[in-house]
Amino acid sequence: MASGELNPNHYPAQRAAKVVQHYLTAHYGSPYRLFGLQKVFSGNAQDTADSGRKYQLELLVHELISNATENCSAEVFFAKGEERTPAQVEVSCKELIKNNTLDQEEALFQQYKTNQSLLSAHDLPDRYGHMEPDTKPLWHLGIVASSFVMLNESTEDTLYNMAQVANITQLQSDDDVIKFESLVLLHDMVSQEIPRWKLLFTWSPSEGVKVLQMEQLPHCHECEKPLKTD
Predict the structure, then answer these.
(1) Which of 172, 168, 170, 216 minimizes the C-alpha distance to 194?
(2) Residue 113 exposure: Cα atoms within 13 Å on the Cβ side
(3) Is 227 part of any domain?
(4) Looking at the domain assignment, is residue 86 inside a domain?
């Protein structure tokens, strides 16, 4: 791995920046707020003794639903060692995470809580990139929950994208949260593998998305690779 100043368009900087995207979506995402990367302006990587490598980044972050952008600074630390630990992320991106979507979230939460039947959807999006408009919040919730997995699994040698919510089902819950079970497909662009993860998570406007369980399923040779990834 190269040290010092990095080419912002090459893999080392892009991989570290992708981890920042997963961090923001996992911690601040919602059915009405998702984060993407628009551009990496600069990157620097340095070994920190024998403990790991620290990446310093300047990047343009895109909030995908409102279409707002902000210049942000971030540090990503990948620890070395036989026992892999999740990357540590610090990011300064103050305005985008203040974007208030609480009223929309409260309305959606009440809609989901008062539905006569529990929600269920599959193939979000389908293999042609389509989905029904009323399933988009479920797709977005799947992205937020999947970001916890991608943040946890990312290393200097991976580049994860969300591929598909294969299925998502609302579960019965008496708490002040809505509980979901979901099967999601990720895409590691480096290995071209499509790992499948089973997730159990909750969502409420006040608490956000909380992943209760995540389990990687065995590789499925018969599963078709989604044609489109974001």
Answers:
(1) 216
(2) 16
(3) no
(4) yes
